[in-house]
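As practice, study what follows.
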Amino acid sequence: MKYTRSLSPLRNKFDGMAFSIILGLIILFLLLQSSIIFKPGVSIQLPSPDTAQLPGIVGPTIVIGIDQNDQYYFNGKNVTLDNLMVTLERAREKNPVTSVVIVSDQEASINTFANLGALTYKAGLTNILIATNPNQTVENNPTSNTSSSLP
């Protein structure tokens, strides 16, 4: 037994009116979308590099590390505060715009970190930078406290 086919290839021409209506709706939606969405926060204008000095490293750098036991390291060696003070003063004598980069373990105490900052200011070096891990986020850090009650 043979069945007759009721399907036939599409032979209609492209309907331009339906296409233009759909395209018009998409354009209208995209134009209105930017004014409908609420953008939280305060609108600020950042200074351009021409008018403001951006932070960064200018000149030579000294990298000082702090481990989880609150010990200081310079050039991979454990140093005391007295030796570190002498090193910082020598660096200032060589070049007064020497930058100090502090690499600290997250378990190091803030008191040790503050003491190192005060020591660098006492030595006459005022450009202090803190090295961070840019790849670590709050979601990836299981030890961070994410239960804040901010509105």
Q: What stands out?
A: Residues 61-131 form a domain with the Nucleotidyltransferase; domain 5 fold (CATH 3.30.420.270). The first strand starts at residue 61 and ends at 66. Helices lie at 16-36, 81-94, 110-123. The CA atoms of residues 101 and 112 lie 15 Å apart.
